[in-house]
């Protein structure tokens, strides 16, 4: 009885080599999306993409699951490629290195790969302080700090007093709009404390007659977790965060809150198993007309300086 021959891949060396090159290009792009320095004010789509794709934290770097994706996925695809087309890849590399142009191309790819890995190492172990936010908190804001001056998206949610808060209510004074949730124990308490402290310091200046009372901002905190931060829990949440009486913490129906967060381009990623929400620190500084003047990571000194520019 004749044993049936096992079908062998018919892919040629050039096709296999192209597949390897394509894999390297996609991997490089994937790593660049996760780690490339983004400048003083990263685009909102970039912040959102890094949080959603890599669970980027406040330092702009992926968390453990993000690194698993960045490292594990290319290794897995390369393993499959070599398992299926290993012989063709080896033949293709051998043929390519027999010519000066092919050898130069292979060496160039290896060099670029080495440089990219070295740059990634520098980025990880010496992260630029502005890669995940909007400025270097260790120094003053530059005069060129970008002013946004764009209309604030719609906002109509329930606060801890059971009242509906809209942008019309906020007009007449600046406002600090930030985003947090009750079960958060890391970023959220810090960002809430920072904006409240900024408001309190502006209030103290107004009490001393240094600024008008109308320059003291309102504080607005929109929940990132309407599943658990229900209207009945907002009063407790406000007390937990030690919010002043004129601060507002907002929530509503899940679909309603999610629509508001999308409209404000708030990057976030919710774990459906734990309910935890991964998100960056983000504060919008609104002027008295209700327009977004600036965006900030929320450090108190920065918020105070930006309020002075509104």
* Biggest sheet record: 6 strands, mixed
Oligomer: single chain
Q: What would the principal axes of the Cα set say about the shape?
A: elongated
Helix content: 40-55%
Whole-number total of structural domains: 2
Q: How many helix segments?
A: 9
> Based on DSSP secondary structure assignment, what is the total number of beta strands?
10
In CATH, the homologous superfamily of the largest domain goes by the name: Glutaredoxin
CATH topology of the largest domain: Glutaredoxin
Question: How is the largest sheet built, in terms of strand order?
Answer: 1-10-9-4-5-6
CATH hierarchy class name of the largest domain: Alpha Beta
Query: Which class do the helix and strand fractions yield?
Result: alpha+beta
Shape-level CATH architecture of the largest domain: 3-Layer(aba) Sandwich
Low-confidence stretches: 127-138
| SSE order, one letter for each helix or strand | HHHHEEEHEHEHEHEEEEH
User: How would you state the average pLDDT, rounded?
Assistant: 84
Taking all Cα atoms into account, the compactness measure Rg is: 26 Å
Q: Determine the N-to-C terminus distance.
A: 88 Å
The percentage of residues in β strands lies in 5-15%
